[in-house]
Amino acid sequence: MAVKTFQFLVSLFLLLVILINFVQPEPTGHPFKSIQNLVGSQKGQSVSRLHLVKQYLKKFGYLNYDLSSNKVPNQANNDVFDDLLESAIRTYQQKFHLEVTGKLDNHTVNQMTKPRCGVPDIFSDTKHYNSSNSSDGVATADYSFFPGAPKWSKKILKYKIGATVQVAGSENFKSVCIQSFQKWAEVTDFLFKEVTSSADADIEIAFKRLDHGDNHPFDGPRGIYAHGFRPPIGILHFDADETWSSNPGPLELDLESVAVHEIGHLLGLGHSEDHPESIMYPYFDYGKKKRNLQEDDIEGIQDLYGLD
């Protein structure tokens, strides 16, 4: 009897292993990790889960099937590698100085799977890229604004820590905010003042998790780590599922580096793609520190507010 029971349990275990291997659930949230399995995909193919790349490129402004003159039902959600996807990949590759192949090659997929800010790189309703050039025509700075170049009309901005998820590694969060705001105050006319959580404020900062009610859900660790909203919305959220630190180890994100970046969005700056060392570059990595404004960042914010 004991032998038969053991054999039954072994058979049940093997059945469960088979089901786990063959019935893979569709990943939730932003599909950074799934994109890694799509290396080598190119136009004309139909590849399982290719729609995740379409969702990625759509989210960050590179792909918009609504503007297509040859609309196909469910085009944005199917797994067909079509002309518009190839064009979007080419634009993405060009933005980040990759070889422009229109294919999901290794370098492109590696770039896509890096942790990044959740704010789009491109907005379809207006041209938003700006750059300053030297006398010989060589670009010296690269920066961008949100559509319509929104900005604050006041010089004193009040900020508060709102209802927030408690996160390990954020013990010095208030001092990190002070230091991060000060970086922008030094190159602008702004004065940033912290107020209590119950007071009215121009800017509200908090740690949030997954779908947190602003129509821009987070996706868990190692994907989108934060987002800051344009003026005068004044909302900054950090993903509570990331591993944060004020002195990051190899698997931790530097809280101050990300805060300085997102405050740039709160003040009206978009992303800079040309110079990875710029604060407003959309990608960042674990174990790194990037806390000081660069030429792109300073020229951009001063141009936006007429200070240059």
UniProtKB/TrEMBL annotation:
Active-site annotation: E262
Keyword Metal-binding tagged: yes
A Pfam short name: PG_binding_1
Residues annotated to bind Zn(2+) 2: C117, H261, H265, H271, M280
Signal peptide boundaries: 1-25
Binding-site residues, Ca(2+) 3: D219, G220, D239, E242
Molecular function via GO: metalloendopeptidase activity; zinc ion binding
Peptidase metallopeptidase domain location: 148-307
Classification via PANTHER family: MATRIX METALLOPROTEINASE (PTHR10201), PEPTIDASE METALLOPEPTIDASE DOMAIN-CONTAINING PROTEIN (PTHR10201:SF311)
Protein name listed in UniProt: Peptidase metallopeptidase domain-containing protein
